[in-house]
Amino acid sequence: MILLSFGTRPEYIKFKPLMEQMKGRIDYKTLFTGQHVDLVSNKTDYRINIKDGNNRLDSIVSSIMDSVDFSGCSAVMVQGDTTSAYAVALSAFHHRVPIIHLEAGLRTYNLEHPYPEEANRQMIARIAALHLCPTELSRQLLVDERLLGKMEVVGNTVLDNLVNIKTSNKNKILVTMHRRENHALIEEWFMKINDLAKQYSEYEFRLPIHPNPAVRKSVGILKNVDVVEPMCYNELVDYLSQCSFVITDSGGIQEESAFLRKPCLVCRKDTGRKEGMGNFSLLCEDPDSLAKQFDQLSLLKMSGPCPYGDGTASEKIIRILQDENNYSS
User: Fold this and answer.
1) Between 1.10.3470.10, 3.50.50.60, 3.40.50.2000, 1.20.58.100, what CATH number should domain 164-299 receive?
2) Which of 99, 125, 234, 266 shows its CA 20 to 30 Å from the CA of 142?
3) Is 253 exposed, middle or buried (0-12, 13-18, 19+ CB in 10 A)?
4) Residue 206: is its pLDDT beyond 60?
5) Average pLDDT over residues 168-184
């Protein structure tokens, strides 16, 4: 039995198509680590309650360590680079349970961008037995790091959710902003986004507001933006499929926008998803660059296949797990 561990909405969304494919084929149970209580379904086999402490990241790690029962687990699968993914992986390593890392090999090699995710994914990689890489570049980076474990290129499972989604190009722009490294500049980002929405008033700018207080405190700045509460995933995908452009600091939306061929402005100092840069997306490193970079979005070629996968990652992973009996039995 494989234990699938997730604690945030993005992790759940990337596990969802894989769980659908695993039903009746590979035995699994789910562990919800409680990092985003208000964003993730309650339908899980096991739950961990994150205790409050002086430091949120410390609280996540300390709440998870020694809280997971690995009895009967042939392997533990963690996704991406959250602190809860790292804590579960470390605990599994201490119990000598093999670790499968979904979305392995993303790198910026800058521990501040993204923080703390870059450190988390590097540390998970050091102890993983099976690396499920979204791209050939991510696999090669792991090879260059001389890591142990088997490495497979499968694409990103989030794209499996988008197969057969019909797209259009309406006067809509999806905006999301939530990353920890942007919190200190959130007022500046919001002011520039608001100015952009005023300049391009023919577009509807919609921003689903993240529940983090550091983001919500500045929401009043967005006078020209349609600010809404967090959208359910299907609603978000529907809006994404209709929009003309995307402004985001989300890695998942960067992948989804490429698959749906929506020009995307990535508001970060760096990104581990470099494969689509200059073709499907552009990097906007600071708020002052927003207007200039946005003007360049319409010039993107959007040519060739999506660099992050073809929508069949889950099926590829099932075949790999079935071949690796020591993980799936």
Assistant:
1) 3.40.50.2000
2) 266
3) buried
4) yes
5) 94
